[in-house]
Amino acid sequence: MTRPSLTERLARHSAERAQAGLRRRLRTVDRVDGAWVERDGRRLLAFCSNDYLGLAQHPQLIAALKQAADGDGVGSGSAHLICGHRSAHAALEEALAEWTGRERALLFSTGYMANLGVMQALLQRDDLCVQDKLNHACLLDGAQLAGAELKRFPHADVDGAARQLDSRSDAAALLATDGVFSMDGDIAPLAALAQLCQREGATFMVDDAHGLGVLGAQGAGSVVDSGLSQDEVPVLMATLGKALGCSGAFVAGSTALIDGLVQSARTYIYTTAMPPALAAATLAAVRLAQTEDWRRDQLNQRIARFRQGAAQLGLPLMPSPTAIQPLLLGDAQAALDAAEALEQQGLLVTAIRPPTVPQGKARLRITLSAMHTETDVDRLLDALSRLPTGAPLARPV
Ligand SMILES: Cc1ncc(COP(=O)(O)O)c(C=O)c1O
Question: Can you state the subunit structure given in the record (predicted)?
Answer without folding.
Answer: Homodimer.
